[in-house]
Amino acid sequence: MDSLDKLVQIIGRHTPRDGIQPTPIPGIALVRSATPTVPMPVVYEPTLCLIVQGRKQVTAGTTTYVYDAANYLIASVDVPVMGSVIEASEERPYLCLVVDLDMTVLSDLALRYPADDKDGAPAAGIQLGETTPELLDAAARLASLLDAPGDIAELAPLTVREILYRLLIGSGGAMVRQMVKADSRLSQIAKAIVWLRGHYAEACRIDDMADIAGMSRSTFHAHFKAVTAMSPLEFRTHLRLQEARRLMVADALDAAGAGYRVGYESPSQFSRDYVRMFGLPPARDASRLRGSAWAPGDKPDAIRESA
């Protein structure tokens, strides 16, 4: 049995239902879906998404990524996206292993295995990379620890470290190095993104975000868009609308209340932006979602649905 088949069997055994399944291994989750899903808004945090069966599509701004067992997806910064499973069935469900990116371990690895990477334009915040046999082998050994919980404490950190090492030396290594390099353009943009995620409901000035990133206004705007595929204000709008949608569906707020909560002063502007992103007026969209199978993992605040 090869590593991919082993991963399919293990993940299938440990995901008895659709959705995101936490595991006893810190920073590791499993995802299953027996059917294709409609595009749902989520925010990706720094994460490795390793599909072992099925296919998924993710759109950030105007850029769309499609990946499967041949290619992994890695997110280096917090990015709001629309994600949907596009290939899945009861016989062959979508299965994915999600690994949080441990910045401490990555930093240590980057120091131990330096490279002559020049930090010009920042890498995109989401990239695809080739899923190599070595990466699959390490992932299979990590997943197999779910069948030997007594070994997790000792062996899981070593295997996660190996997975991160494979990312560092693989096709996406340049982006991974930028993540942990304090003075890289990617790290500077990441600081602004962290601030924006905590202040999206406020009136955010571009100059303030540029100061946080340590860049001029024009440089910041260009690099922010290179990383996220969105302008800073478009990014803020995505965060606002995702949270408003969650508030209406999960907390039963009305459209006016949800819009006001996320920073909109004009209900009409909120409605226009909402329709532009989700295709339906806020109240009608929320009613539709409340009447459908809105799984916990599909909520916009469910960061781990990044797979």
TrEMBL record:
Q: InterPro entries, alphabetically?
A: Homeodomain-like_sf (IPR009057), HTH_AraC (IPR018060), Tscrpt_reg_HTH_AraC_N (IPR009594)
Pfam families, sorted? AraC_N (PF06719), HTH_18 (PF12833)
Protein keywords: Transcription, Transcription regulation
Listed SUPFAM superfamilies: Homeodomain-like (SSF46689)
Citing just one GO molecular function, the answer is: DNA-binding transcription factor activity
**Annotated region Disordered: where?**
287-307
**Where is the sequence biased in composition, kind Basic and acidic residues?**
298-307
Positions of the HTH araC/xylS-type domain: 190-288
Q: What is this protein called?
A: Transcriptional regulator, AraC family
Which organism is this protein's natural source?
Phytopseudomonas argentinensis
